[in-house]
Design brief:
The chain has 8 helices and 9 strands. By secondary structure, it is an alpha+beta fold. It has one domain: Chloramphenicol Acetyltransferase, CATH 3.30.559.
Length: 285
Amino acid sequence: MAKKEKEFRRVKTIPPMAAVVPFIMVNRTGSQNFIRDSFDVEKIEKYIREKQAEGMTNMSMMHVMIAAYVRLVSQRPALNRFIRGQRIWTRKHIEVSLSIKKEMALESPDTCVKAILAPDATMKEVYEAVNREIVGYRENPGGEFDSVAGFIRHFPALFFKFFVWLMKTLDYFGLMPPLIARASPFHCSYFITSMGSLGIPPIYHHLYDFGTCPVFFSFGTKRRTYELDMDGSVKRKHYLDFTFVLDERICDGYYYASALRLLQQIVRDPWQLDKAPETVIEDIK
């Protein structure tokens, strides 16, 4: 019987400095860097309208942002690393966590869902995978995360605290029970949240010391500006602001800057997401 391929592996050929830093900066919240940027949404909005006309009726900015990040990771694989046990690991697949509500109402319950995607996923594959999770929860609330959380919330406070400590300790040594890891939205490649549906700018959302999430991506509502065109006329444009909170231990600033430039290229031409990338770059050994 063939040996099952692991979903993650340790990165062993990193530079000495990168190997030492996780022992100095021991937690994720103490290793956060923050960055804010924006992009013109004209082409993405056209792209979304085209996809909706083709039958992807639920297509939204969220779907495009997830697909764009998946494509980004296929070319910048170090973004899919995480720190566990003060060592650097890399994933085979891209695990995307997002927080959703059953409906947009103050008293509506919210939860977290997680979609698992291949690095070569196309827009159609991302759309279908994300919709399965979102629509599945809204039609039948009570997924894995709700089930686990609903069970442990009944523990006495002291026992609950011990349970969380035990899970963090097991996770440190790579012994986290698979059921907990699968259900946990904090064990992911990145967390994404939209402030656009709330009508506010993007927030800088902190990372979590529990789990493995090294990146939190937030985008807000569109903002309108007026700019001078090349011929001197005034043109109205719309921009989308977004923020990243990044674990600086998984890769260096130059790598992050390169990734941000590539993300800007992807959102300027979202039609490239309709096809799988020509090559998927693997992380170093």
